[in-house]
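Changelog note: in this version the structure field was regenerated for every chain. One regenerated record is shown below for reference.
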Amino acid sequence: MPQKIEIRIPPGDAEDDKRLREYLAQKLGIKAAQINAYQVLRKSLDARSKDIVVQMQVNVFVDEVFEDAFAFEPKLQDVSRAPEVIIAGAGPAGLFAALQLIELGYCPVILERGKDVRNRRRDLAAMNKEGIVNPESNYCFGEGGAGTYSDGKLYTRSNKRGSILKSLQLFHYFGATERILYEAHPHIGTNKLPHIITAMREAIEECGGRVLFDTKLTDIILDGDCMAAVEVNGGERINTKTLILATGHSARDIFHLLDNKKILLESKPFALGVRIEHPQSLIDATQYHCPVDEPRAPYLPAASYGIVSQEVGRGVFSFCMCPGGIIAPASTEEGELVVNGWSPSKRDGLFANSGMVVTVEDKDFARYGFTGPLAGMQFQQMVERKAWVAGGGKLVAPAQRMTDFVQQKRSGSLPECSYLPGTNAAKMNEILPMEIYVAMAQAFVTFGKKMPGYYTRDAIVLATESRTSSPVRIPRDPETLQHTQIRGLFPCAEGAGYAGGIISAAMDGEKVANAVARYLGL
């Protein structure tokens, strides 16, 4: 049986097999030659002081055969003749629901409004190079959902939703590196995730499931208070007793559809703000206590940060921080400007970007005349449209130096930026709701005191970071996970207000799939 030990060692030694074996042997009081194998179970970086260390939990096999603590293989089977379950959305929730249904003996049929990974790339290129938005194929819609091309962070605190480890193991099974199984903040990278998503889809199809691209859910047909069928692409009817609704936080047409059919929705708080970008070298210097004009040590990853402050009664916090990353256009409609961030697997870019947002709720929406279940969505659209106008169109983002943001000055020049469609100098206090702007301006100064160098004219602020989570909740019964009014309708994951990020969405997809199986098994 392996011996489980914990060690704290310099980062460079943690990446050196020989040195790591020496530390393990010293900890156990044996010779390094006696260690047949070892396996890292957990790994995190502690950079709170100048003496940076890596903390590791390791299984050590002394004179014994190696056994993989992460060994896993999904129970995939032929379901081509099994009862079908309709899933709307091929994001993490939809894909993981499909894989779970296959394990349970059901045949998933995924309806995806967008395109597959390969063809989706062309539409993303058109956004970045030409400022053209395809409302059905963009950074939010298409195979893999918003997560495919927006970083691939796999960190979540949502352990009550299901098995985090199983979700990570599935990503590993389909091609992700083993590091995601033990790193404290696992990350795949936008350059690697598309291949993994494709492998998942191919496995679903090999088992008899179907993934239908360019197939948009356009109506939900009821028989009393029960699901009866769905309509796709404005005409074709598919009869079904169940629908897993996993369409994502940006499917506003779905929210309108449900609202028009008098299916209960609820307004939900969400966070809105800007995306801020610094030179990565500045963040490295702040976090690793090194000179800003010297490169970080080669064994250290691009530094990240998480920061929060209470200002004028509101929480201001960083969101989806992307070290060595790129800011990307995440709009889903012409006339609305949305930005997001992502990092490649190596996180080797010149810039570090992060969302910087403030939570907004019903009282904020009402101040601008928005009430009812779609109030948050309408508030969100209002800000995105103002940002589009301020940018000048074609996905050009309104931008401002960080110090000018605080001083309400239009920047005379803008620093270099990773956002490919381009930037246009603007005053954020004329775009953001004033209560959000004031809280954020004060927070930037506070952050500069917490992280010396953070508050700087070399940082650029872009609007709008607004798709942090769904502004609408589709209520469901906590036991059956069905909509509180409609039997057989299963609101799922981020678009329904029950997840936030890839892993929590994946876990909710599995959880809903289990609920569907229970319902159909009655």
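Spot check on this record: The two ends are 44 Å apart (CA to CA). The CA atoms of residues 30 and 75 lie 40 Å apart.
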